[in-house]
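Input chain follows. Return structure tokens only.
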Amino acid sequence: MDLLIEIGNTNLKYIFIENNKYINKNQLFINNNLSNLLPINKALSKVYVANVNDEMYLKETVDFYHNHGLAVHHVNQKTHPEITNQYDNPDQLGIDRWLHVVGAWVKEKKSSIIVSAGTAITIDFLEQVNPDKFIFQGGMILPGIHLSLSSLNHSTKNINALLGKVDYPASNTDDSVTTGIIYSIMGAVNLVCRPRKPDIPIILTGGGADWIYQHSDKDWRSRIKLNENLLFDGMRAYI
């Protein structure tokens, strides 16, 4: 049995692999006692970790599993023999973004727009140049759903909104803020889609993926493929 762990900006996500199948997925809020959250199983043989948070969380994870007699493989490669990484400085590229791209390549084997809805929202583009050549072109980063909501609530004196309905023109503050957030996300993706072929799929992942999918318009939604395990699909390419 193998264990895949993502230490994200806000949450720790993990999933076990047994008989080549995902089992027992979970997501936990990261606190100062990370070792109390980490799963352990007698049948566990290998542990793989991708970390986008502070290095202290990676060290705590490695130490925890070392104390249980298990080696930890730190997945931090931003290269792949099938994909050219054109990011100007790969060291600045989050490993989560790269693994989402690799996961899209694993699943689709074609040009893809990859949208990850977490603390931040990233919109990245993987281009298939020919049957055997793929290029990661880069992308964009915008505030995530809750980050956008929190920013408005804390920076604007008369706004203290909750997520409401997507409805333009909205007739109350909660719905006005919610509509603005989802329209900004859809607008960014639409601008990315406009100059590209209409058959390119939009791969949507992350904690806010279902909410974005449910509130997107029908034409936009028809291109979306939801994949909650996209990062783990990318990690498996390095196992």
